[in-house]
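Same chain as my last thread, 544 residues:
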Amino acid sequence: MTRGAAGLTCSAGRVASCQCCQRPNDRLPSDPVFGSSTPVTNQAFHDREAELQQLARRVAQLRAGTPRWLAVLGLRRIGKTSLLLEMVRRNRHRDVRFVVLDCFEEEPLGFDIFRRLGLRTVDAFFGRELGVSLEALARSPDDYRAALEEARGFLKLERSLRADLLSLCVARANVGTAELALGLSERLATATGQYCVVAWDEFQELAKLPASRGGVLKLARAIWQRHRRTTYIVCGSERGLLRRLVTSEGSPFFQHFDLIELGPMSEADARALLRASAPPGRAVPAAVAQQAAKVLGGHPFYLQLFGEVLTERLPPYDAGLVREVFSELLFTRTGRLSLHFAREFDRLVGSASTLAAMLEALAGGPLRTMEISRRTGASSGAVVRYLERLGDAVARDAEQRRFISDPVFALWLRWRQPGGAVVPMTVVGDEAEIEVARRLAALGFELVYQSRASRGAFDLLGVRAGIQVGIQVKRGALPMRFSRAAWDRLRSDAKRLQWRGLVSTVTPDGKVHFFDPARARVGAQVTLTAASALENLLAWLDTG
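reply #2:
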């Protein structure tokens, strides 16, 4: 594979999705099956049967001469592109061509997106016959034109259409090219006796482009509404904007699209995704899949990330390893899901501290406008305006309270707030760890899970002012006893890891005690009593 102006291409000049250079068994057994970086189809695709049936119905209606358009709304990375590609895979007909496009393929977005649309449309009608990607060949106009003229159906087209196709490779990024590209699928479908499905992701972004006669969207509507052999499926992650685009009376596309929302998977399908996508020899246990689905919900991107990080390690996948994966993925500054949320936070907030304060206030749960006002110090009118700026990141419940739409994003926001070190333990810790974590977070500790191999006898690693403290957590009544072997291992691991060692106990009445191993009573067994508990943990930490 090589990278060119049109993306990845193979040795035969085809786009990266072609099968000409792939053999069924090329993937090594150790290659990851989870795919968080690219859309998934075929066996890697899960759930969405109802949505796929709706898409298939649109193809059938088109072939029956009654095309109906569809708008698909969904969160970022919820699987809209995968859904479109799976639709293409499942609806192969000799007389139907598919054009799949994403506005984010052009950044910053400009009128070049229409040149891309035109070239991809030409590819859809002639690329299969020629065995090359005309979109990729357009980097070399002479090669593009020579290849296109070899297509059997090309010479049968009327002269003006042939001229337009040949000029696409050098078309300028302007309204004229937009007008040409928006009507090209219908012209080719009519000329060849075929049909075309144009699936356009992040379609709402086109509203940001200017054009004569009122904008690109009015231009598109004016051209598309005359089409009978082309149907349109548009998707968008800015759900409010796309919803207004297709339902508002003032929109050019009012009553032109049916509307469906692509939400998270069900918990059962989320579990199935994790278990079915695991690489050979690294099966995800049912209990682990259930826990991941409970924490991450049914967002396929989050689940794919979890599966990738988990199965990079060797089994067995026990509770300790699962805790480490969640910590690495979501509760560290450099975790892949943490970085994803950091980018989303920056996109939403920019440099507006009040927007940041609103998200942090809502991370704790639903709030009414006046409650947000009290917590952020903004007036109720300002709160309403700021909430509008947050768009789909914030929703409203039946009691008119605002809440963060994505519960995993809200969880991440709680973790990064002061005292948020306890959040990971509330997600994957047991009751004793949660109680200990709360006490330590209140004292300014940052807490992380690490793998059993790297934390030895300790359950948690606490960090305060650069001092690392290994913490073993116990639940039970005092006095608490340890075998000499277990105690010696604890002391040895603290020395080996160069951590301060600490034992914490949570008694049946819910009280948390901390003990310095050096103060334990050592005999045939090692005993910790209430009298030897530390009264001031921070003072102990400062003594070194």
